[in-house]
Amino acid sequence: MAWLWTLGKALTVLFWWVVLVNLFMPMTHPFRSLINLTGATLMLLHLLEVLLFHASLRGRTHPWFDRLQILLVGIFHVRSIPTRSVQESNNA
């Protein structure tokens, strides 16, 4: 299942590359607007994910790097973060 999260991350990074290329070398009319609208919508969704998972990132060693990765690849990074075990939560 981990390969699926890695594939999702790679495809999301590829999409952001398409959005950046579209900003500097715009495509033809309908595609330019659609790519920009989809990129803006995805960025808003990733910002929402950062806000929703803010509390769960506080105990991480590099929470700002995790937030940056969530902005880039979204839920694919959140799902790749290992959950705390029951033993760790009992000790805390």
- State the distance separating the first and last CA atoms: 29 Å
Low-confidence stretches: none
- How would the global form be characterised? elongated
Q: What value does the average pLDDT take?
A: 89
Radius of gyration: 16 Å
Helix content: over 70%
Number of domains: 1
Beta-strand proportion: under 5%
Helix count, DSSP H or I runs of 4 or more residues: 5
Category by helix and strand content: mainly alpha
Largest sheet: none
Q: Tell me the series of helices and strands, N- to C-terminal.
A: HHHHH
Summarize the structure.
The protein is mainly alpha-helical.
What features would you describe in this structure?
- The protein contains five helices and no strands.
- The protein is mostly helical.
- The protein has one domain (2-91).
- The longest helix is centred in the middle third of the chain and has 24 residues, at 29-52.
- It is elongated and about 50 Å long.
Structural key phrases:
single chain; about 75% helix; mainly alpha; about 90 residues
SSE topology:
Elements: H1 2-24, H2 29-52, H3 63-73, H4 75-80, H5 86-91
Helix pairs in contact: 1-2, 2-3
